[in-house]
Amino acid sequence: MPPDRGHVTTEHRHAAGELDTCTTSELVKLIIDDQETAVEAALSAQDAISRFVDALVPRLADGGRLFYLGAGTSGRLGVLDASECPPTFNVDPGVINGLIAGGDPALRRSSEAREDDSAGAHAELELHQVGAKDTVLGIAAGGTTPWVLGGVQEAARRGAMTGLMTCAPPPDTARADHHILLDTGAELLTGSTRLKAGTATKIALNAITTSLFIRLGKVHENLMVDLRATNAKLHDRCLRILCELCPDLDRFAADAILKKADGDLKVAIVMARLGVNAREANLRLVDVDGHLRAVLN
């Protein structure tokens, strides 16, 4: 017999009741209206999210990595967030990592049975040599997924800082250094945590990595300045940002400086603002761990 999960709030019946009697218009409105709870849940968890980010910043600055562990929707959201960090913040793909029960095939085809193995994530953690500098955040909407809880426990044994993000209170046996509770309650479609629990999880993950990399100097004002002009879209964005921060430049002059900076926007900005060459601009950025504001001030 499987464990009775009837106590888990994401498994409770929603007050909306008989969805199969609703019109399409009524269904769409119910689904969209119910998403407001996801935003409220994320807002209620902002202090816990902030504490997690504040603990994470010095660890990544010291060469640590962040690993997400999840199954099903939770795992896919972790992989999605991790995969978007390199193009957004120009970080190495190994800095933020998404691990999902069932491996990469589970991104397209569900592997529900894999989530029941409490030791299932151990091999992945060993493969990546997770250790004391690293952080592992388990993502489990209902808070009971054995693959996630077992992985977090193993990460702690390996010396990593641990976190657990859930959309329902986890069992008393779940242990982590940080707990982020996104209390979304009952799903409109009972137990379908790809709905508002998924939305709340996506909001929280966005908040974690965006705040993290802003704190690590990847952003100036609200601009993504840690960019390289590696394709036409990014080349154009680099030029527009360079012209905005250095208003004396026209687009052609900006392009000439960007080429001298080998396509590195942050280096090009320092060159243009301070009148130095690429080597000197890079040295000044290295001295302040890449924080552009510290160089320009």
Written description of the protein model:
It is a single chain. The protein is an alpha/beta fold and about 300 residues long. It folds into 2 domains: about 10-215, Glucose-6-phosphate isomerase like protein, domain 1 (Rossmann fold); about 220-295, Helicase, Ruva Protein, domain 3, CATH 1.10.8. It contains 12 helices and 7 strands. A 5-stranded parallel sheet has the order 2-1-3-4-5, with helices on both faces. A two-stranded antiparallel sheet has the order 6-7. A hairpin with a 2-residue loop joins strand 6 (about 220) and strand 7. The chain is globular and about 70 Å long. The chain starts with about 25 loop residues before the first helix and ends with a helix. The mean pLDDT is about 95.
